[in-house]
Amino acid sequence: MKKAIGLLGGTFDPVHIGHLRPAIQILEQLELAEVRLLPNYIPPHRASPDSAPAHRLAMVQLATAQTPGLTVDDRELKRDRPSYTVETLMELRRELPDTPLCFLMGMDSLCSLNRWHRWQELLEHAHLVVSHRPGWQPQFNPTISALYLAHGTRDSEQLQRRLSGCIYLFDNPELDISSTQIRNHIRVGNNPQYLLPEPVADYIREQGLYQSPVL
Ligand code: ATP
Where is the Cytidyltransferase-like domain (predicted)? Predict the structure, then answer.
């Protein structure tokens, strides 16, 4: 069995410290080989993102360039149709048959997982590693409770021993940061410094992103 890798899907509009700190902590504490950030093309379960895919990709590349162990996987952006996580995980499983896959998500995502396309199949292809997020308690609806009862584990070694199938709640410090909050700061002329990496903030300024209201 190879060393497990992490996969963090998101719109990253823009990528911020609330994505990156948990990703680094999970990389180190779970001894993953790498964490790949996977920007979504069109997230199927939410409204269309503000910025063009090329901007979101550029920001994720800038954010990870100086961080050993964090990489970017742009496969979903290359598809010209909605990207479903289950399909990406199936593709990665075919490419990496001996590598445990840890799909990283925030607690908000786990709480609404049963709205994802073919959500019942996700754990066949990957583990779920969930980071805590302010405002989201692990108080699950009955469907997610049953899923957690069947797949939840407190033993992180299972994530390296098995290819898929575990849900692991990662004990990270909560960071009250979201892309929405950052877009709103920029729209009203506030300084988003320290919520996101400096090179990403510079890129947003240079490109004039998030300055006009969404119509
Ligand atoms: P938006 O505000 O536009 O909805 P977001 O900040 O939630 O965006 P996404 O790109 O949608 O960012 O998130 C990608 C993944 O990262 C999701 O699984 C989400 O739960 C997780 N995540 C985002 N922000 C945090 C945070 N502050 N703490 C923990 N997990 C987070």
Answer: 7-184
The verdict on the CB of residue 127 being under 6 Å from ligand 1 is no
> Is the CB of residue 14 below 6 angstroms from any atom belonging to ligand 1?
no
Distance from C-alpha of 48 to C-alpha of 50, rounded to nearest angstrom: 7
Nearest CA to ligand 1 atom 9: 10
Mean pLDDT, 10 residues at a time, the chain of 215 residues: 96 97 98 97 60 92 96 92 90 98 97 95 98 91 97 98 98 96 95 97 95 64
The C-alpha angle with vertex 36 and arms to 203 and 96, in degrees rounded to 5, equals 150
Say yes or no: CB of residue 51 within 6 Å of ligand 1: no
CATH for the stretch 5-180: 3.40.50.620
Q: How far apart are alpha carbons 45 and 28 in whole angstroms?
A: 30
Is the ipTM beyond the 0.90 threshold? yes
Whole-model pTM: value is 0.95
Q: How far is the CA of 164 from the centre of ligand 1 (A)?
A: 23
**CA–CA distance, 199 with 197 (Å, rounded to integer):** 6
Q: Is 100 helix (H, G, I), strand (E, B) or coil?
A: coil
Contacts of 91 (CB under 8 A, 6+ apart): 75
